[in-house]
Amino acid sequence: MVYPGENLNLHIFEPRYKQLINECHSLKKQFGIPTVIENRLLDYGSLVEIMEMTKVHENGEMDIKTRGSRVFRILEVIKEVPDRLYSGAIVNYPETNEEGNRELMKKVMNSIRELHRLLKVDQDFKKKDEEVKAFDVAHHVGLSLQEEYEMLHLLQERQRQEYLKRHLTKVIPLAAEMEKLKEKIKWNGHFKNLSGLGFER
How far apart are CA 47 and CA 30, in angstroms? Predict the structure, then answer.
């Protein structure tokens, strides 16, 4: 999952996606990344643009830099596109409101820093607090994949800010208790990201 405005580096190796990326790069078109959770294709995803073709390997595989552009909603999946290896979809682009509450976002940022302090995480968002959007920090607050998806289709920035605020209010006390427990038993926790392949709709 990639949010609007977020940078994402991708390694392209499947033939269908090599075809897709080559076409999008040559025609200066964007492409869509749908959301897949528990092998199921969901309605909302993100349109992304290719920012840089970093490297093309001898076997045709590619390393590319992309950036999320806007949220789309899938209306119909087109499994077979003529003369293409990849699938397609008919989508629309829901209207969004990007005006948030500055004071609320400052509180969210303070809570994020508190969470990162407890977890001993060093993260620089490279923006002033008043310039940060909810999508800029959504991957850095410990949301589950389902929660990240719920954030994706909140169409009002104020709604996204409130969502982050509620989440942080819930997890910061848990993180504080975990730190106390770790100190007691001298245990260092590790977190793993697991991902699945394929999907059904």
Answer: 7
